[in-house]
Amino acid sequence: MPSQSALRKNLLAILTWVTYILGTLQVVRFYMASIPGIDLDAYLHGTAPLPFQKRYLPAIIIRYMLQIPPLVRFLLKHHIVLSPPARGCSLILSTIALGITGYLAVRLYRAVSPQGRMAAFVYPLLLLCTLLSYAVHVEQNTYLPYDLPSLAFFTGGLLCIYTRRFWPLVAVVLIGTLNRETTLFLICLFLIDAASVPEGEAITRWRDRFRLARVSWLRLLLLCVAWLVPELVLSRMFAGNDRSQNYLRVVENLHSLYPAAWPALLNICGYMLPFVLLLHPSIRPRRFGNYALVALPWFITMFAWGVLSETRIYGELVSLTTVAAILLIEQHMAHGAAGTAIVDAPKPAAVV
C-alpha cells in the first residue's frame, strides 16, 4: 500500500496535468471565439492575401485533417464549438500546438534553472501570457490558424539554441518557416547565444558580454539558408496573390506611439516583457538573459511591417518571457533579504 506522501504526490501530479489540459483548452477556445483574421476557405485553397497565405503549413495540415471522415463527422456533430469543420481542425491544431509549447517551455526552464524549483508555475504563467498576448485586444481581435503553431516552433527552436543542438534547430527553422517567417529571429538568437561570453568571465562593460569571434559563421550561414529556401519557395508559389495588405507600415505605426496606444503596446507577453528587458542583465545564466535582446530587432522589424498594437506579432516571445520572469522571481526568492532584491517595488503612499 502506498504511503500517504506518495499518494499525495500522485494526486498532485494528476491534478497538475488535468489543470494544464483544461487550461490549454480554455485559452484556445477563448482565443478562437473571436472572428478569423482571414477567410479560412481562401487560405486552404491558396488564394488568401499576402503575407497571410505564405504562412502555409497549417493549411496543409488542416486539408489532410478534413480528409479523415470520422474526424469530420465528429466536428459536424459538435457544431457549437467545432463547426465549420475547417475551424474545428484549426482549434484542434492550435490546442495541440499550445500543449507542445507548454511542454517545451517547462523543458527549457529545467535546462536553464539550476534547481528547477518553480517548474510547476511555468505552464500556468505561459497560458496567462498567451491569453493576454493573443486574445485580450481592443484592435485586431481576431485569430489566425498559424499563431499558436508558430509559438510551438519558436519555443522548440529556443530550447535547441540553449541546449546547443544545432541540427534539430536547422529542422525547426526549415519547417517552422513554412508556418511563419518569424523563425528569422531564431537566427538572431543563435547569434546572441554563440557570441555570449562564458559565465565565469568578468564583465566590466555592456559590450564585453559578446565576442563575435566565438560565432561559427558557417553554422549561421546554414541557418540563413534553411530560412531562405522555404521563404523563396512560398514567395514563388503565391506570387500572384493579393498584396494590398503587404506593405510598409512605418507611417501608420507612428500613431501607435501616442499615449492612447500605450496600454495595448505594453500588453506584450502579458505586460512582462518590459520588466524582463529592464532586468535582463540580472538573469542567470547570463547567456539566457542575453536572449531578451532579440526583442529589439523584433520591434524594429514589426515597426516596419506589422501593426504595433496587434500584440500577437510578438507572441513567439511568450515562452522566453515566461521562463525569464520565473528565473527572476526564483533569484529574488533565493536572495531572501529585502536588501538584496533585484528590484524594489514602489511603496504605497501613506494614508492621511
TrEMBL record:
This is Glycosyltransferase RgtA/B/C/D-like domain-containing protein. It comes from Terriglobus roseus (strain DSM 18391 / NRRL B-41598 / KBS 63). Keywords: Membrane, Transmembrane, Transmembrane helix. The chain crosses the membrane at residues 12-32, 88-106, 118-136, 148-167, 217-239, 259-279, 291-307. Signal peptide: none annotated.
